[in-house]
Amino acid sequence: MSGSDKKAKIPDAPKPVPGPGNLLSSVAPPAQLPNFVTSAPIAPSPEPQNLPQPVPIPQPVQPVIVQATREDPGPQENFSPAIPLSKGEPTLPIRSPEDSQTTQSPDSLTEGTPDVDRIGDIMPGSGLFTWVKGAVSTGGILHRVAEKAKSSVDTMITTLDPQMKEYLKSGGDLYLVVASDKEVKVSPIREAFQTVFGKATVVGVPAQSDVTAEQPVGYAAAYAAAKQRIAHVRSTRADLNNNIPVVAVEGFLQETVSDRWFDMSLLVFSQPSLGIELQLQSQGTPVPGAAVAAASAATPEDYEHAQTGYSVTIGSIMAASLQVHHSQWQEAATGVPRRDLILLAARSLAGSYKRLLAVSAAET
């Protein structure tokens, strides 16, 4: 074997074998799609023969206005749904004041237009007119509102200036005199009678008592001193007749039990024309036995009114002990001023007097 034969023989590349080829080349062309459109012409649809005819729009009807009198009602007007062309314009003739006066009589006005007082009878359910009628009457809601407003104004005025209270409530039919010029006595009596009677004129007149001791002890001594003050006022004031009531306030000491002393005020009310005399004592303020013993020791043995009390008032002794004014010792001792004590008693006195006046008026 030759050297060339010994060389390795390189095989030839394989030839392509005819086969199905690639995938796209193996797909068959699409077949023809079916045609559903026919070649015959479509017949036109017949026109509708029985269509509804258009409804004609009615022309607006002008309403006929008929004026009827009471005697002849005349034909009734028919209702028309159409809106007249003269909408917004007056369809009835406008009468002048002269025509209205000539065509309407007082009788027709009375029958056709009821007044407010008759509304409640004609319209039983008209609560508004009933409310208005009750509101303007005496004691109605408007009257109460006015009274409330007046009371509020008076309260504001008296709060700003307490001395205005006696001027706002002064007047009326009651004129009362207090047998004293001290404010601690006159002021509570004025307030009490003005509260009970609404309005009252209360004035104070100075009066002295010289029939009892300076400090009365016991109810009898206080009553005698109060009567003396009333008599003094009537004797010095010629303008005070028996029909004008007079009130006297007298402070006194009262021993309720052994060595239990109280300071009280006796109020005596007198009106001779009606035969009225009222007596009322205030709430008591406790007084220490030592203070009473000091007043007794300070009274001379030859004191002319020793049987009715002491020559030294208990107020001066208590004021010196408490280091206050002699008119403020009750408040310093118990917290209740003498004015409040007299005020409560005076209100009871005014209430009793008002009841007696009512009984006297009923009997006459």
UniProtKB/TrEMBL annotation:
Sorted UniProt keywords: Golgi apparatus
Entry keyword annotation includes Transmembrane helix: no
Any matching Pfam family: NTPase_I-T
InterPro entries documented for this protein: ITPase-like_fam, NTPase/PRRC1, PRRC1
Residue ranges, compositional bias (Basic and acidic residues): 1-12
Bias kind Pro residues: ranges: 43-61
Annotated ranges, domain Non-canonical purine NTP phosphatase/PRRC1: 180-268
Localization (cell): Golgi apparatus
Gene3D superfamilies, per the entry: 3.90.950.10
Hydrolase among keywords: no
Biased composition (Polar residues): 99-111
Region of interest (Disordered), residue spans: 1-118
Family under the similarity heading: Belongs to the PRRC1 family.
Protein's recorded name: Non-canonical purine NTP phosphatase/PRRC1 domain-containing protein
Source organism of this protein record: Loxostege sticticalis
